[in-house]
Amino acid sequence: MQKSEQILTDCQYNIAKQLEKKMEFLWHVDGYIKDADKEGNQECVRVFKQIKADEEKHAKMLKDLLKMK
């Protein structure tokens, strides 16, 4: 019986999984910002915008790391 070849290393899998989570959040965050804005909660808007910027940066870092592997 042949040993099956691993398609992704554990590190690559972990990077891809975390990137998926970041992208899912980014898919939804604009709705969170709109909801907070509709309520007039500018502090919530500010926080979600900051988190969005951070998550975009982190997603790019993970994407770049995945390209290197």
From TrEMBL:
Residues 28-66 form the Rubrerythrin diiron-binding domain. GO terms for molecular function: metal ion binding; oxidoreductase activity. Gene3D superfamilies: 1.20.1260.10. Pfam families: Rubrerythrin (PF02915). This is Rubrerythrin diiron-binding domain-containing protein.
